[in-house]
Amino acid sequence: MKMRADKTAFRIAALAAAVSAAFSSNVMAEEADEMTRLIKPESSVRLGIGSVDKGNARFGQYLGLQDSGVYGLADIDVVRRDDATGTWFKLRGRNLGLDRRELGLVYGPQGDWKLSLDYREIPRYSQYTINTGLQGIGSENLRVQSANKRDKVLETKREKVSLGFQKSIGDNWSARFRFTNEEKDGTRLFARGTSSGVGNANRWFNFLAEPIDSTITQWEALISYADPRFQLQGGYYGSHYSNHNTSLNITGGGVGFNGAGANTLSPIALAPSNEAHQFFVDGGYNFTPTTRASFKVAYTNATQTDAFVANPPGVLNTATTGNISGRTNLGGRVETTLAYLGLSSRPLPKLSLLGSLRYEDRDDKTPVVRYISTTPTGNHDGTNETRSFRTSQGKFEANYLVANGYRLVAGLDHDVKDRDTSDVRVVSHRDTTEETAWKIELRRAMSETANGSIAYVSSERTGSDFKVNYRFNGTPGRNVIAPIHLADRDREKIRLSADWTPIESLSLQANIEDSRDSYSSRADLGLGARRGSSKLYSLDATYNASSALSFNAWATHSDTQSKQATAFNAPEVVTLTAAQISALNIWSAGLINKTDAVGLGADLKLSEKLDVGADFEFSEDRAEYRLRPERGVTGAASLPDIKYRTATFRLFGRYALRKNAGIQLDLVHDRRVIDDWTWSTWVYNSPTAAGDGTTVGQDRTQTTTFVGLSGYYKWW
């Protein structure tokens, strides 16, 4: 729990007293001898205080250290064993003085039964500062206004409790049960608005805050059997998501969809409650010491039957007459069947084989009903669409020891996906995609201190013919771009890795991956995804100069690129003529994401009582767009790059007052530079008075220093 200096003097004093007590002469009077420390479980406790010098949005985003002030530091590990009964008692606590705390308990006789209890809190503070006049934040009832603006930082917190029990039943059987309950509360970014074309006076945007108040419960129960040849387990897994907020009810703000009267798009339905239940059986059988089969069968039934929010007529568009389906809930139901079979064998001392088959059928049995009326030229007719998938996968791999330490690995993967969709849609579609990949890899243990491998992977994705997009009235829609996950694609990848230990105190590891993608476009128009690439380089090094001094260093570089193109004036016909193709106005984008990161660290034992250590990490993440007009487009097209830089320095010093007690000093200096134009000056506004003028932004430079002083005590 966070403790502010101006409000928690009593708590800090109590904590300081506890630290003092931990090192009192009574506690320190008896130290465990060397033999006791070697054979008995170790317990420890750490108590102290920490300070953050400046408020920040990112350093303490998930730790609860986002505000300047004083915090409590507390960790505990209690491990006890009853030698007579073999009963273990384990208590573990982490970050007990912060908003992100963990506490776990395990109790039970070894090999018989075990009871576990876990508690966790996980906060998340939004990295954005919002200046808004919105009233009612945190509730379902909001009022949009541009007056009385003030700064707000949205936050959520999860509290998770888990209870587990495990019991041995006879020599080969065991049972396990786990129940988890997670409560999530807080608020997060939300918005509403309309758009009917660039420059249209009816466009407007309002900032909203979604209230979070939900519960996720999970149950898991299974029974297992195991002997030297046969292993089997079967069980049940269930989950239930309950959203205690059903809708946002909004007053003020917008002027309706496309300027239709005073309608303000209210209420707005929030995420509906749902649940899922799975039954499964999996296991394995050892036919011989060198041949083993494994399998899994599972069935899952997921449903969503939460009641609809009653929207008044006119909410969705001017032609809407409300819910015309006669239904009060979606009646959503998805049944998933999974079957897996694998076989591994070593028929010869130098040859190993591995093969598997996997089939998954995700059958969406949600009733298909027309919910709203639409204009005849629309891209949808107000009917919901189901999303069913069937996936079949087969894998085979052979591993053969050739000679002189060389090992050759060859593999083949085949993947078929079948999908369904409605004939009336906006996005291009094909029913089936099929991908085949093969790889060959050469490995070698070059010496007792060095080994490496090189692998080449090639894959090809094709599929059934693309379907024509149709409007509600039967006329064709735009049909020229293949979505990136459905487009024909050829991929080539090469991977190299090496480990080297030139001397006993030095070890090096290096990895290189490089892949290239080439996409085929619809009707050879050059639209959609064109090509892509991905590179990853990494190097790690560890050096133990002596028993008292060690170093480590690492570096990574990744570069992912995608070249895409689009035409914004494609005619809505099934097949384009040569004249229509030559008249297309084409833009292209070269999307690039680059990440560079390095780290250095050192640990030094200055004496028997004093240890010090330090590490430094730096990373830069850059996103580039590289928009470019290619044909029929005038004017320069560009978007600024987005860059995030983080530099973190950590230093610790630990001084042993006794063999089992001491003090520790921790220092963390964190600097982040954010160059993100998407959130630098964002304003919820419009050409009319409907926009509320809320701004969302973040500090470009955030520098934070954390200092912690704590004492630790160990016993056996």
In short:
The protein has 716 residues and is mainly β. Helix content is 4%, strand content 59%. It has a 26-stranded antiparallel barrel. Strands 9-7-36-35 form a four-stranded antiparallel beta sheet, with no helix packed on it.
Mean pLDDT: 88
Helix content: under 10%
- β-strand percent reads over 45%
Q: How far is the first residue's CA from the last residue's CA?
A: 29 Å
What's the total helix number?
4
Backbone CA Rg: 31 Å
Q: How many E-type strands?
A: 37
Overall structural class, as computed from helix and strand content, comes to mainly beta
Global morphology:
globular
Main pleated sheet: 26 strands, antiparallel, barrel
Low-confidence stretches: 1-30, 257-262, 313-320
Organism: Aromatoleum diolicum
InterPro entries: Decahaem-assoc_OM_MtrB/PioB (IPR020016)
Keywords: Signal
Protein name: MtrB/PioB family decaheme-associated outer membrane protein
